[in-house]
Queue: 2 jobs
Job 1
Amino acid sequence: MPLPSDEKLVQLAKDLIGQFDTLFGLHPGFRPAHAKGILLSGTFTPSPQAAALTRAPHIARPSTPVTLRFSNSTGLPLLPDNDPNADPRGIAIRFHLAERAHTDIIGHSTDGFPTHTGQEFLEFLRAVAASQGVKTSPTPIEKFLGSHPATLAFIQAPKPSPASFATEQYYGVTAMRFLSRDGAARYGRYRIVPAAGIVHLSAESAKAKGANFLFDELAQRIAKGPIRFDIQVQLAEKGDVVDDATIHWPDSRQLLPFGTLALAAKVPDDAHEQQRTIFDPIPRVDGIEPSDDPLLELRAAVYLLSGRRRREAPETQASTATSAD
Ligand code: HEM
């Protein structure tokens, strides 16, 4: 996948990566955001209803192999799983369509995003960095939040720790444009719903957990049997805003069953594979197109630039989550 030709966009992508480096420090070989993660493998099975929404190949086939990465938030590879900054948790799903052909879904466990545009997100991150250690109010971040209600709403949204990566719900956040076989177009947003139910911890019980409790729990859980999720698409209705990740659609919107995931195993050589793998927020597959949400093209550039840098770094020796096997 090449970088976009828009030089301004590429510069913004570089500035954002630089800002993550400033906030979290440089950790060569790791992601500047969602640094601590683990890869699993399994199978996607489409739902019968999904064929009416999209002609995408993984919906037309009986099943498709997947690789999935769960992650903590922040660019700190050793961030304890029970640190409040570890939320929202991340999910990235790769559908393997053929040799070197794939399409991805990326989501996180909070429904929404702090800003509509990447430029605003950069200003937000700069305000966070400029406020570190500042005691006189209003700090730069207080000023930013005072003039950006959508960012404030995201910051204030409850982000409880999950009891397990397998008991968290994840949101695709940015809308996609789905095309059916007869050319009908519908906008929708992914939701990845745990078959085990949503189970969160109180702040107190999270505090009592160990630094690797989520990664350890996942290893124990998958050894006993597959971890399952339902993928749904929340369908937009006429008039819903489809290019702004800060805007929620009404809860009454239809949730179309897209398919199910069964995750059966950890990926061998996890650290190496995590370092090599670059997920892509743009689907790049017939039947699913990006919406005009400005975050999508920018993030594709950010993740590609960041991923190339990660691949060039010396091999990281161990996974960040090796305490249980
Ligand atoms: C302008 C907006 C955003 C910026 C600048 C940004 C930045 C980043 C960066 C730098 C990475 C590391 C990429 C890599 O090295 O491969 C990353 C990963 C990630 N981001 Fe974002 N992000 C943005 C929006 C979002 C949104 C809206 C979501 C939720 C849907 C999200 C969820 C994730 C997840 C789950 C990962 C980990 C992917 C993986 O496992 O490889 N990000 N982000």
Job 2
Amino acid sequence: MPTKPHFFASHHFDRMAHRRDQDTWLEQRRSSGNCWFLPVAGSNNLVVKGPPPAAALLTLEQVSKKLSCTQIYLGEYKEKSCFALLTEHEHDSNWPDTEYQQVLRVATLIDIAEASLLAYARGMSIWHRNHRHCGRCGASTVSSRAGHVLTCSDADCSWQQFPRVDPAIIVLVSDGERCLLGRQESWDQGRYSTIAGFVEPGESLEDAVIREVYEETGIVARSPVYHSSQPWPFPSSLMLGFQASAASSDIQLHDGELEHADWFSPEDLASGKPIRLAPSVSISRQLINHWYYQQTGRDLDTSGTPPKAW
Ligand SMILES: [Zn+2]
């Protein structure tokens, strides 16, 4: 089963990182009209109301009253230079037929490339919002390199901060016949997912897989094998997907993060009872789909009654 590109991956557009410090080139792109602006207010992106909804890709003329807002160069998409426009407050918006939305809520309804752009803009917006002051001396920060560096304004400090990405492992553990899934108390009833957790300093990805699986479920995982990765800017994670085998079967919820964990057979997954799986936009679902295909030779989404997404 070929691994499909994950939602929110950025292969749909060119980040053109070498252009970020070319202010003259960026200004020429803006003034020539070869540009789109993507307003973001905190963690919500501006979208054109549906149906179906679409990313709001606004022209220079449409944002002429907002050009004092922080702009972040995202890259080139359909021969346009794209800039996130940090509008700060949702009520500042008066663009017709638009609204601010959580990108996760519209990701499957809009163009997949535009969903990636929105997620990228969202991640950068949240980073800017959370790093307005220097972590060393507390002075305010100043945006540079087209929004990709935040530099301390105190000349004696001048510490530079770069966009933060938090690595997290996510793993499908199998005992050969069943897969290990768990759920948190706060999730929708019946929803289960693969085991996940943040990588800690001084830890390899494989270390993190084995530690997280044991902490959350008491299962001893062995031989983690990398599968694929997915940007998950909610707010700043990079999900690193693995498969691993189980060297034990007795589940014990050690750290209290999960409300329940259990082993599920391919038949359980295909029946959709009693569990609901993560939506197709998530790497969790792709890991489950891949394991199901390995076990049965069939695509989970077309086998029997597919488990319902969110
Ligand atoms: Zn400082």
